[in-house]
Amino acid sequence: MNVLLVEDEKPAAQKMTRLLKQTAPDADLVAITETVEETVNWLQERGEPDLILMDIHLDDGLCFEIFDTVKVTAPVIFTTAYDEYAIRAFKVNSIDYLLKPVNQKDLEKALSKYRAIHEKHNHGQAEYQHLLQEFSPAYKSRFLLKIGNRYKSVSVNQIKYIFSREGNVFLQSIDGQAFALEFSLDHVQKLLDPSEFFRINRNCLIHINSVEEMIAYSSSRLQLRITDEKPQEMFVVSRDRVPEFKRWMDR
Question: Where is the Response regulatory domain (predicted)?
Answer without folding.
Answer: 2-115
